[in-house]
Structures are given as structure tokens and as C-alpha cells.
Amino acid sequence: DQQVKQNSPSLSVQEGRISILNCDYTNSMFDYFLWYKKYPAEGPTFLISISSIKDKNEDGRFTVFLNKSAKHLSLHIVPSQPGDSAVYFCAASAYGGSQGNLIFGKGTKLSVKP
Amino acid sequence: KAGVTQTPRYLIKTRGQQVTLSCSPISGHRSVSWYQQTPGQGLQFLFEYFSETQRNKGNFPGRFSGRQFSNSRSEMNVSTLELGDSALYLCASSDSSNYGYTFGSGTRLTVV
Q1: Which of A47, A49, B46, B103 could form a disulfide with A35 if both were Cys (CB 3.0 to 4.6 A apart)?
Q2: Which residue does chain B place closest to A44, by CA atoms?
């Protein structure tokens, strides 16, 4: 049973527009969430995280929103750039992020077209 | 600061053999986690070591094992390899103050 779901395998966006990547989770014990970006033949790169005590966290062009009641989080990238084209993974932890047993979604491939 | 280093980058093994993969975390990081990435299952957590002790374990058979040394370097071992073990094996490290786990580039294991 998948505890973290990314229901869109792919997303295509025009350069300069907003990219919105979505993630749903089922385990109410999750209290820390992370987004990673992955290029082929490389390991995932940490982008941004959010604790369950917050509903929004921003870092430059990246903003993560958390809706605990809906068990849903989203990553907004504004403005999108061609270099953002990659696979994005949502991950969750039940230990406040302090222990390294992250549960990952299967990823969404983002294509940003010039 | 050097990143997480995984060796080897590529490996081809025969069914039934065993394999050992190595991970050197970022200096000062005491937590090392291992993940398996396959096209069908995505990234799945194998186990985590902290200060030489296994702190968490995922849902993998006992053929998958690991250890961590006093310098925080970690190894994972897979015995009696099966074709389905072909995957990218990723290692991530973290210190207690940084929850953005840093991943290595992975070891691509092919079992033939």
C-alpha cells in the first residue's frame, strides 16, 4: 500500500509559468515532508522541506504548501525555467525528519519548454 | 566539502552471487540511509544506520544487510542475488541539524 502518492507521472509547463506538483499521503503519523529533484544518472537533490506545524515554506522560486486535513502537499515553482526539467519526488517522515527512513512517492517528471 | 561518495558506480553480477556496496557520508554526518530505486517501485527505504547501530529497517528480505563503521562509512551487502535486485542503490547522509538528507550518485547494480 503506497503511503505517499504522486498521481501525475508527468507535467509539461511553459517557461516562465508556474509549475505545481502534487503529493498525497495516507499515514497521519507523517510530520515532516521533503521535495527532491532528480536528474538521470544522479542522486536526488534536496529542494525544500516543511514540518507539519507549518502550512507553507518558501525558498526562492520554490514554495511548498501543506494541507494536513486533506493529507496533501504541493510544490510550486515560479517562474519555471528549462533547467527545472527533472523528476521531482515527494518524501515523508514520521520522526520530524530526524531519522533517515523517508517514504518516497514515485515521482513526477516535469518538462519545462522554452 | 565533499559530498556523499558511493562506490562502485556500476556493477554487474550473476544470479546467486553476493555484492557489497560502499558509502562514505559527508564528513560529520552520523546518519546513513540506503534506498533502492527501480522503475516500477520508485525509491524504497532499505535501512538506516546511526552511530554504528541500525536505527530503522525497511521491508526487505534478510538477504539485504548493512553495517556502519566508527568513521560513519557504511556498507550494504546483498547475498544470493536475484534478477529483481537489479536497481540503482542510493545512499544518503545527514547530521542532526540538517534534515535535508544528501544523496550520493548511487551504484547501478545489474544482475544477469
Answers
A1: A47
A2: B103
Interface contact flag, A34 B100, Cβ < 8 Å: yes
Comparing alpha-carbon positions, the chain A residue that sits nearest to B104 is A43
Q: Is the peptide bond before A114 cis (omega within 30 degrees of 0)?
A: no
pLDDT of the residue at B1: 63
Residue B98 has pLDDT above 60, yes or no: no
Residue B110 has pLDDT above 90, yes or no: yes
CA A9, A13, A16, A17: dihedral to nearest 10 degrees?
Answer: -90
Please report where in the chains the cell 554526518 appears, as a residue.
Answer: B29
- C-alpha B58/C-alpha A68 separation (Å) is 25
Work out the mean pLDDT of chain B and round it to a whole number.
93
- Gap from A14 CA to chain B (nearest CA, Å): 27
With an 8 Å Cβ cutoff, is A39 touching chain B? no
How far out from the chain centre does Cα B81 lie? Answer: 15
